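Quick sanity check, Cell death-inducing p53-target protein 1-like protein:
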Amino acid sequence: MKGPPILTTVVPVGPEPTHMICPHCHAEIDTTTYTRPGNIAYIAATLICLMGCAFGCCLIPCCIDNCMDVHHTCPNCKAYLGKYRR
Ligand SMILES: [Zn+2]
């Protein structure tokens, strides 16, 4: 398998699964979503770790949640469809 191609689609992706026609396999799908922290989340997590775990652990969950990017993929052909950044 090749890596996911870099796409500039006009898919109107939001934070929720989107009903659409997949531009790759042309199937009618609801996008599969998953969240991954954006770069800001990694930076924030690093800073929090440096400040001390006891203090930082209670801050990490809300911080990470705000920094998450939502990625959309096609459940049929597994194509990467786009990313929604909060
Ligand atoms: Zn597809």
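Posting the structure with no commentary besides this: The first strand starts at residue 19 and ends at 21.
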